[in-house]
Amino acid sequence: MASDEPASGAKPALEDAETLRRELDDHAEELAELLETLVVVQDLSADLAPELRRAVHENRDELRDLREALEREETLIVLQQLGHRSDTLVALLDQLEAAEGLANDLAPELRRALAENRDALRQLRGALENEDLLVLLERLGENADDLAELLELVEVTKGLAEDLAPEMKAVAGAERSSIRHVRQIAAGMADAYDETAVEPYTFGRNLGNAMTFAGRLGDPATMDTLDAGLSALTEDEPPERVGLVGLVRALWDEDVQRGLGRLVEAIRRIGRS
After folding, report:
1. Same-domain check for residues 84 and 8
2. Structural domain includes residue 192
């Protein structure tokens, strides 16, 4: 009985060994790759070990600070926020890279622009250092609202001028002859003023008096009176001949009497002036 127990215990061991051999045969290539990788890692570790020891020794204080910083709760919160906003961080890094590339491209142009405008920049710096300019900037800041309103008014005026420009051109084209006549009248008045030795104030006063007289002359009553008198002088049919007796008889006419009264009053006022 004792001889049968070792034989039965050795049989499972042989079966396990056979199974292990078959698995090793099935994965022989993967096992070989793992062994090669292990050898490479072992060699790399042997090469890096002195460097790692020296780096750790040289940066012992920095590593201690880094470990303490990582152990703080604020650092964990920052790392969590960075993780939550990783997409935004990546986008910012892309923008930073693009800005860095743009800055590298613009650097030569900026250097050349600064070299070409060195004198202008020096003058601008002197102007900025001037006290008067600072006072002007302060006043502009104090009146920023008024300045904004003025700028809006200028913008509206510009838009209105742009809208009215075609209309004004059309009117100027249609009234070209009238505008030419007015210009000639103005030129004639200027020539008349140049030929006279009248002071500008006196000339303006005389022009104002002439305009006042023209306003009075244009009164409807005055125009009716002048038209009535001139029509009697310009009619085609000649009036009746009036002798001395007719003149005496006409003095009794109410219309003649009113006309003579106006004429005498006019002569009296002329003599008074």
Report:
1. yes
2. no
Rounded mean pLDDT of 83-109?
82
Mean pLDDT of the 20-45 span: 79
The better pLDDT of the pair 226, 253 is held by 253
**pLDDT of residue 92 exceeding 80:** yes
Residue at 84 is within a domain:
yes
Residue 140's domain comprises: 124-174
Provide φ and ψ at 199, rounded to 5°: -70, 155
Is the confidence at residue 47, as pLDDT, over 60?
Answer: yes
User: pLDDT for 210-252, tens place per residue?
Assistant: 778 777 767 777 777 767 766 666 666 776 776 777 767 767 7
Q: What's the CA gap between 71 and 53, in Å, rounded?
A: 23
Tell which residue, 24, 46, 21, has the closest CA to residue 34. Answer: 24
Structure tokens at 248: 């005496």
List CB contacts of 256: < 8 A, sequence separation 6 or more: 250
